[in-house]
């Protein structure tokens, strides 16, 4: 298998893991303001773990490191944006409960 296909399979695995964690964060927090804030901060806190794990796993297949770094950067940006969206959605729930 070529290096590009191996990096693509790692990217698909990272997206599947992201989807599972996102589903658990949203479904377990429900419409609770405090739980949603905690879920958003957890997403922001696990971003470095996802970044370094993706770099370590992808660097096995990509010896130069540019593909592994790019892949890890994309995954980290997705996690950061999702954490911010979860935090903003908790503020939306607070506004909806007040009015």
Automatic annotation (TrEMBL):
- Name-wise, this protein is Uncharacterized protein
Q: Which organism is it from?
A: Bacillus tropicus
Origin, by domain of life?
Bacteria
Show the stretches that span the lipid bilayer.
Answer: 6-25, 37-61, 73-94
Keywords associated with the record? Membrane, Transmembrane, Transmembrane helix
State if Membrane is listed as a keyword.
yes
